[in-house]
């Protein structure tokens, strides 16, 4: 036991590990906030779809050799988020189908472009495409090579996301619970939907480097689903899912350091475990009544 | 008594298929309008159009000077609301005050008091902290009505307000809506299957089918041919 703590202690002497922990917790916090909204709006998969779009955008950025990936990834993802949430309700292609289409489409095109670029040796691609792609999909150890600047960007983004969420909390509730009522009674629900879309896109782009684009949905959805098993009001569900998400991220990172497992999938495993625990709790509570 | 809502030559439908047309009527301040008609005649669609949720195929729907978009309450058909949503009764009723907030992010004291008053008025005070999805159908309906009342300052639109209620609750619901109209001077527009209630409480009747069949006061409706024919069919069903 004490060996473990010694090991942890020595790790935490390294700035890289501390940065990773800070960034990890901030991402967990942000991603859990909008989980309930997405689940209730039947947009659980938008995280998946958007992260694949971000993957495609990243491929383009890598090939064209733009110095800062974010310049391409962020706008593309935000635009896709807006299009998906907006058209989801009343177009010929329904929300879930549109998400699936964009998601796999971007994934396929992104992977293809990276391969072609690697063959031609253009841009900044390394020869090891499979490893590159794998780390984008499942998150990488790049979390341990964060520079202070990255950490500050992440902190700034998190502050923006959290304060937007707090300021518009009541509006987000109204628009999520019953959009047509909100619209009918003169609340500008379109504007708030747009806001939700932009915030989600920002969260996904921040989180992508961390858990990878395949696992982001888990980070967004699992804490919300777990909390919804047990808690009854919107506010308590949100608070609970934030707490779950933070705890899972914290222990996930610690375990991944000690056991040498991939960061993203360790955190998601922790989330899954909590989900089953909450399922059992809700079952026991119902029996108890 | 000025006009609040004007419908001129409105046609409604989905993607080019006309459900109902030639809708031409005016709702004045203080009216209690009941919209009747057979299933599929576009009553709910009309409500949505009046609320601006669905644009009409042609024609014009206008809110007139006195009433603003954010002074309208709306009780949707219950099937439209998410039944498995994790929200407490208080949170839902309070969300009816949203249209008073404008850009202000949080509810103020008056709005919280209003929500509380409405809950007391509808006898759902003891349920304040309960979860919406665990309530019975009738209780859920009251919660949604309380929310609509918070939003309604001048006008309220109700879509089948008594669906799923037992006879006693149905009566209470009608009495409540009536007192809103008479005491609080709120203009009521209601869709209903229940012809007996329509002719008992409403001041005006709008009967729609493939087109507008009748619009006028309740008294005129009861002496008109269409009114008598429809009443004998629908009224008979209710009594069985």
Short note summarizing the structure:
The complex is a heterodimer of chains A (289) and B (240). By secondary structure, chain A is mainly α. Chain A has helices spanning 2-12, 15-33, 35-40, 46-64, 70-87, 95-120, 129-138, 148-167, 169-177, 179-184, 189-211, 216-230, 234-259, 263-288.
Description:
The complex is a heterodimer of chains A (289) and B (240). With 289 residues, chain A is mostly helical. Chain A has a single domain (2-282), classed as ABC transporter involved in vitamin B12 uptake, BtuC (Orthogonal Bundle), CATH 1.10.3470.10. Chain A is 81% helix and 0% strand. Chain A is globular, with a radius of gyration of 20 Å. Chain B is 38% helix and 25% strand. Chain B has a 6-stranded mixed sheet, sandwiched between helices. A 3-stranded antiparallel sheet of chain B has the order 2-1-4, with helices on one face. In chain B, helix 6 (167-182) links the parallel strand 6 (155-159) and strand 7. Chain B is globular. Chains A and B meet through helix 9, helix 10 and helix 13 of A and strand 5, helix 2, helix 3 and helix 5 of B.
Order of strands in the sheet with most strands of chain B: 5-6-7-3-8-9
Order of helices and strands of chain A: HHHHHHHHHHHHHH
Largest interface: A-B, 29 and 39 residues
Q: Which CATH-level-2 architecture of chain A?
A: Orthogonal Bundle
CATH fold node name of chain A? ABC transporter involved in vitamin B12 uptake, BtuC
Summarize the helix and strand pattern of chain B as letters: EEEHEEHHHHEHEHEEHH
**Helical content of chain B, roughly?**
25-40%
Whole-number radius of gyration of chain A?
Answer: 20 Å
């Amino acid at each position: 036991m004490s060996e473990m703590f010694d090991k942890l202690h020595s790790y935490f002497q390294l700035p890289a590990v501390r940065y990773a922990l800070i960034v990890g917790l901030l991402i967990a916090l942000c991603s859990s906030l909008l989980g309930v909204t997405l689940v209730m709006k039947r947009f659980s998969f938008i995280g998946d779809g958007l992260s694949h779009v971000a993957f495609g955008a990243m491929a383009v950025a890598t090939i064209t050799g733009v110095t800062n990936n974010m310049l391409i990834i962020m706008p593309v993802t935000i635009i896709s988020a807006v299009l998906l949430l907006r058209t989801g309700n009343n177009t010929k292609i329904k929300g879930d189908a549109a998400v699936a289409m964009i998601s796999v489409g971007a994934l396929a095109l992104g992977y293809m472009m990276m391969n072609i670029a690697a063959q031609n040796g253009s841009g900044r691609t390394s020869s090891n495409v499979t490893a590159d792609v794998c780390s984008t999909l499942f998150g990488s150890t790049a979390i341990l090579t964060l520079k202070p600047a990255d950490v500050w960007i992440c902190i700034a983004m998190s502050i923006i996301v959290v304060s937007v969420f707090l300021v518009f909390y009541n509006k987000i509730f109204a628009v999520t619970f019953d959009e047509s009522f909100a619209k009918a009674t003169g609340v500008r629900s379109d504007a708030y939907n747009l806001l939700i879309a932009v915030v989600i896109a920002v969260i996904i782009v921040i989180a992508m480097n961390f858990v990878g684009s395949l696992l982001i949905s888990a980070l967004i959805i699992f804490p919300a689903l777990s909390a919804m098993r047990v808690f009854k009001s919107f506010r308590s569900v949100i608070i609970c899912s934030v707490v779950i998400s933070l705890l899972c991220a914290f222990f996930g990172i610690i375990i991944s350091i000690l056991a040498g497992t991939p960061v993203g999938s360790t955190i998601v495993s922790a989330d899954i475990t909590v989900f089953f625990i909450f399922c059992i709790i809700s079952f026991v509570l119902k029996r108890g009544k | 008594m000025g006009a609040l809502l004007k419908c001129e030559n409105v046609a409604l439908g989905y993607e080019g298929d006309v459900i109902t047309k030639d809708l031409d009527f005016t709702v004045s301040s203080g009216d209690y309008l009941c919209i009747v008609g057979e299933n599929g005649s576009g009553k709910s669609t009309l409500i949505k159009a009046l609320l601006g949720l669905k644009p009409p195929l042609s024609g014009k729907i206008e809110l007139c000077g006195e009433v603003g978009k954010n002074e309208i309450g709306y009780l949707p058909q219950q099937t439209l609301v998410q039944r498995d949503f994790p929200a407490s009764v208080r949170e839902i009723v309070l969300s009816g005050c949203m249209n008073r907030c404008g850009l202000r992010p949080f509810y103020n004291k008056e709005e919280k008091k209003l929500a509380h008053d409405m809950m007391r008025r509808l006898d759902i005070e003891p349920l304040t902290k309960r979860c919406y999805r665990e309530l019975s159908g009738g209780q859920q309906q009251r919660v949604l009505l309380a929310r609509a009342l918070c939003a309604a300052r001048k006008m309220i639109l109700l879509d089948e307000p008594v669906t799923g209620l037992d006879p006693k609750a149905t009566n209470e619901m009608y009495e409540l809506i009536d007192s809103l109209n008479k005491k609080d001077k709120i203009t009521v527009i209601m869709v209903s299957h229940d012809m007996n209630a329509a002719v008992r409480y409403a001041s005006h009747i709008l009967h729609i089918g493939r087109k507008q069949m009748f619009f006028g006061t309740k008294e005129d409706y009861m002496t008109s041919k269409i009114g008598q024919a429809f009443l004998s069919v629908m009224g008979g069903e209710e009594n069985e």
